[in-house]
Amino acid sequence: MSAVPLPPTTAPTTPAAPPLPAQIGKYRVLGRLGEGATSEVYLGFDDFQGRQVAIKRVRAAAAGGDPMDGHYSERFFAAEAALVGRLQHPNVVQILDAVPDPVAPYLVMEYVAGSTLRPYCRADQLLPLELVVEIGFKCAMALGYVYRQGLIHRDVKPANLLAVLTNGVVTDVKISDFGSVLNLGSDVTQVHRVGSLAYMSPEQLDGSTLDSRADMYSLGAVLYHLIAGRPLFDAQTQSAMMHQIYHADPAPLVDLRAGVSAGLDAVIQRALAKNPDERYADWGEFAQALSGLVTTQQVPRGRIQDVLDSERFTLLRTLEFFQSFGDVELWEVVHRARWQRFNFGHALYRKGQEGNSFHIIAQGEVEVFRDGNRVAKLGSGTSVGEMAYLAPSDELKRHSTDVIVTKPATTISFTPDSLMQVSANCRHLFHDSFIRVLVRRLHAAHEAIAHPRRIL
Ligand SMILES: Nc1ncnc2c1ncn2[C@@H]1O[C@H](COP(=O)(O)OP(=O)(O)OP(=O)(O)O)[C@@H](O)[C@H]1O
């Protein structure tokens, strides 16, 4: 686990790595993923569920080590064990199981194929600015989710943010290591001074009562490090570092890296305000400030991805169709939907074609023609093709109209198979939205019968 009480313990002298265990509980051990101050992390395989998992086994207890270490390990283990099955968010590592083995207790987590964000803090390995902002957005949204569960992480740092790597490129991020978490619902006392000094807010340092703005400061400090390639503050001694955290202004990011705009600098510096009241009021505000940098082009656009996940998320959030979707379900849509761009004149559907997909128009406009007559114009936030998609019989699955793009459109689409990939809750929300759409269409059809010449 990552939390280090102050004063920090000296780095453990790591003996040569012990041989790999063949099995931990019901999990086959496939390899070693890493190690922390208090634990070893293994790649395991769950034969029952048929999936890879990460197993974090407490080392101090296994070695029957120092009672102090053992004491802390137990506390950290208990904190994470209490969260089994509780945190379900695409940007939070899921804790799947906790086994309080008397010799070596272990946690089983979702396996993240990648590395921590630590290597990307090095000046020669910095990530593109737009990716850092994207990581910030996702972490802010995820920590907002964590906070709504009544939790404050208290140890947000690069080593606790796992980067998902796809072909060597960072494509996603997941918050891990809840060993220092403060559970506002059940922890009667706040055990002060857990966390990592370099990313620690002034109020966390002096043991004040914390709220989510302490994590906000830490995330700001992580983003600062990822942008600048150097930590917020750097000092030879712990007391000098503490003095800087209390009193020093961080060097402006615009001076530390080419391409950093005043806007980006200001967004990060606000999260780093010494006084929590001067930071963002809530996580939504911080996330919005970060995504706003992309929409207002205050971060240079590289070519990592044509459209960022955060842009897609923000776009979907504005659409009526998704108004009842929570953040978690909306992220599922961002990741699972097929996103397509269509030019003017493209036929989304032709009369007589069998429908096995539906589209939701994210941007642009389509018109619906029945036998050459325009019968409807559909703009962003509406669905099209859902009638054939939902039809109970093959005969009704054939489209009865032509649907043509009349303003360049971005749509997201699902097939029955791809909709089965999302959670039951997310599917349920789709069905709710379809009911609303269909009731409106029915009403429109009645109007059309009553006023046949009107275009709907
Ligand atoms: N879910 C996971 N999937 C893949 N790798 C993981 C996962 N969790 C942890 N790791 C790897 O194991 C390493 C150690 O994990 P972790 O930081 O949770 O242990 P720790 O004992 O808390 O460490 P520290 O005290 O140094 O923060 C991580 O740096 C990471 O490389």
Automatic annotation (TrEMBL):
Q: What is this protein called?
A: Protein kinase
A Pfam family that this protein carries is: Pkinase
PANTHER family linked to this entry: MITOGEN-ACTIVATED PROTEIN KINASE KINASE KINASE 20-RELATED, SERINE_THREONINE-PROTEIN KINASE NEKL-3
Q: Which InterPro entries match?
A: cNMP-bd_dom (IPR000595), cNMP-bd_dom_sf (IPR018490), Kinase-like_dom_sf (IPR011009), Prot_kinase_dom (IPR000719), Protein_kinase_ATP_BS (IPR017441), RmlC-like_jellyroll (IPR014710)
Entry binding sites for ATP: 56
**What SMART domains does the entry give?**
cNMP, S_TKc
Per the record, the domain of life is: Bacteria
Classification lineage: Bacteria, Pseudomonadati, Pseudomonadota, Betaproteobacteria, Burkholderiales
Q: Which residues does UniProt assign to the signal peptide? A: none
Every copy of the Protein kinase domain together lies at: 27-291
Q: Which UniProt keywords apply?
A: ATP-binding, Kinase, Nucleotide-binding, Transferase
List, in alphabetical order, the Gene Ontology terms for molecular function in this entry: ATP binding; protein serine/threonine kinase activity
**Chain ranges of the Cyclic nucleotide-binding domain:** 321-401
Gene3D superfamilies registered for this protein in UniProt: Jelly Rolls, Phosphorylase Kinase, domain 1, Transferase(Phosphotransferase) domain 1
Which organism was this protein described from? Piscinibacter koreensis
